[in-house]
Structure prediction request, 708 residues.
Amino acid sequence: MKKLLLLSLLVTALTNAQEIQLKDTIITSTTGFEESAMKENKNVTVITKEDLEKKVYTDIAEVFRDAPNIIIQNTHFGPVVDLRGNGERAISRVKVLVDGISINPLDESMGVVPMNTIPLNSIERIEVIPGGGAVLNGSGTAGGIVNIITKSSIRKNFFNSEFGGLSYDTQKYTTAAGYNITDNLYANFGYSYLTGNGYRDGDKRENGAFNGGIDYKINEKNRIRFQGSKFSGNEDSSYPISKELLSQDRKKSGSPSESKSDREAYSLDYEYKATENLTFLSTIYKQNYEKNFTDLIHMKTFKIKMGNMPFGIIMKDVDSSMNGLFSEKSKGIKLKSKYKYENGEIILGYDYNKTNLLRHSIVKATGKGYTDTFFQVPLGKVSVNIDLLNDVYKETQGFYGLNKYNLNSDLQLTTGLRFETAKLGGDRTSTTKPSMNGKPVGTFVKTTSSDKTEDNFAGELGLNYAYNSTGSVYTRYERGFISPVPGQITNKIGGEYFGNNIKSETSNTFEVGVKDFVGNTFVNLSVFTTFTDDEITLQQGNVHNPATKEWKWLNLDKTRRIGTELFMEQYFGKLTLNQGLSYVNAKITKGAYKGDDVPLVPEGKLTLGASYQFTEKFSTGLLFNYVGKTTVREYDGEHTITSDKTFKTDISSHNFTNLNFQYQVNEYFYLGAGINNLFNNKYNYTETRDSAIPAPERNYYLSGAIRF
Prediction:
C-alpha cells in the first residue's frame, strides 16, 4: 500500500510537453509504402527515437518491456515478443521485421528472434501493429507485426554518441552518424558495444553490433539503397533453479550455459518511379545467424533408447554436457508496386524466401546405469554420447494485392487478398553410442525424413472513417494463417523421433477501434475477437533440459481470444501523463482441453507513465508496469509424454517501476540517470511449478550523450 501511495504521488507530480499529432505520423508497415497513421484501419503504436533516448536501454527487449501493449516472453535461448496473447507460440505468431524484412527463426524450440542484435542508436522508430499484417506479410502474423525502422533512409545529417554505466559492472557505448555527401548520395552507420555482468552469479555478456549503408538517388525516377549489419556476442548464463533455493538466494546461478552468437544481414533496395502515380520497389536480401552454445546440466535421470533392443537404459545421478550449433541462412526477394488512381491506390506484390537451418548438438552423459525393465538391473557406470543432427528447410512464395478505395473524402474501404505456398521438410539423425564400465555397447542410428507442402490464403476487409480533422473510427476483418515450420512436423517421444499430421492453422479476426483527441487527451482504443481453427500447440517435458527434452506438436480444435487495447495521453503544459492497457482472454473452446486458458498468456498489461519538464534543460519521467497472471502447462514428471497427463501451474502477476532523469548541459551534450525497478519488487522472468529465473532487483544507470 505504501508503494502504491508513493507511486500515485509521483505520477501526480511528473510531466512532459510533447504533443502527438496522429495525422502527421507516417508509417510504412501496413502497405510497404509511406502512409498516414490517421488513415489506417488498424491499431498503430509508434515507439520513436525520442522514446529510445529517454533512458539507457541495454537492448530492444528492454524497450518492449516498457511498451504499453507488448509482453516479453522469456526462453532459455532469448526473449520473444508477444502481442494479443500468443503465449508459448509467440515466436511464430508475431512477426518481427527490420525495414520490412522478417528476422523470425525457422526453429521454435531452440531458435530466437535476433532483435537484440540491432544497435538501438541506429533505429528511427518502431512500428507496432497488433493483430494485423497477413496480406502483406503472410504466415506468422496472427498476433501482429513489429517493424524496426532504421535511420538508413531518413537522409538527414545527424551524429550521436553515448556512454553509459549501469549496475552489475556494465558499460555501454554507442555511436551513429548520417551525412548527405552530395545532393544525391547519403551514407550512415551505427555501432554499439556492451560489456558487463548479469544479475545472477556468473552471468556476463559482451557484444558488439555494427550497421551501415548508402542511399543513392540516381535521378528523379531511380533510387538504390544498400544496407549491411554485423553482430557478434558472447554470453554466460545459467538455467533456472529450484524455487526453494531461489527463496534463499535470488542471485544463485543454475546449471551453467555459455553461448557465442554471430549475425550478418545484407539488403539491396531499388525504387523506380515510372510516373507520378506508379512506383515499383524491389528488395533482395540475405541473412545468416549462427549460435554456438555449451550447457552443463546435472539430471536425476536420463533414459537411453537402444535401437530395436527390448530394453533401454535408465541413468541416474547424471552429469551431462551439450555442445550445440544453431546455423540459419535465409535469402529472398520482395517485389511490390503502388498505383494511385483517382479514388484510391492499389498495391500488388510478390515475395520469395528460402531458409535453411542446420542444428547440430552433441550430448555427453555419465551416471549409474540400470535396465528400464520392471526389475531394474544395475549395470554399473554408464556413459553415452548422442549426436543429433537436424538439417531442415522452408521455402515460401506469396502473391498479394491490397486496394484502398476512397468512397468519399472521409470514408476509405480497404480490401486485400494473399495466396501463399510453402514447401518444408528435412532430415533428423540421432546417433547413440553407449558404454558400460568403459566398454562400448554399440552404435544406434535413427533417421527421420519429413516433407510437406502447404497452400494458404489470407484476406482483409475494412473501413476507416475520418469524422473530423483529428479523429477516425475503423472496423476490420482479417483472415490469417500460420503454416508449420520444419521442426513442428516431427515429434520426439521416448527418445525417438516420429512424423505427425500437423497442419496449418487459420484465424479470423474482427476489430473495431477509434483514435482521436478529446480536449487535451489523445485516445487510441480498439476491441478485438480472434477465432482460430487448428491452432498449433506444443506439449513438452523436461522443458529446461535440451538433452532430455521431449515434445509433441498437435492442433487444438478451436481457440478464442477476446480483448481490448487502450492508450491515452494527456497534456497539461509541462506535464504529460499516459496510460496503456491491454487485456486478452485466451481460451481453448473445443477439444481435449476445452475451457482451459491458452498456456503462457498473461491476462493483460497496464502501464502508467508521467513526465515533467522542470526547465528547458531538466526533465524527469516515471513508468509503472503491471503484467497479469498466467498459467503454464507441464507434463507430470512421473509419466511419459505418451500418457498426455499434464498439470497446470498458476504464475502470479508482477509489477515494476522505472524512474529516469535527463539534463541538457548545452546545445549538444546531455546527461541521463535512472533507477529501474524503483521499489525493488521481486518477480521472475520465467517460472514453472518447481523452478524459475529471477528478474533483477533495483538497479541504476548513468550516461552522457552528444547529439546533433
Summary: Residues 348 and 401 are 4 Å apart (CA to CA).
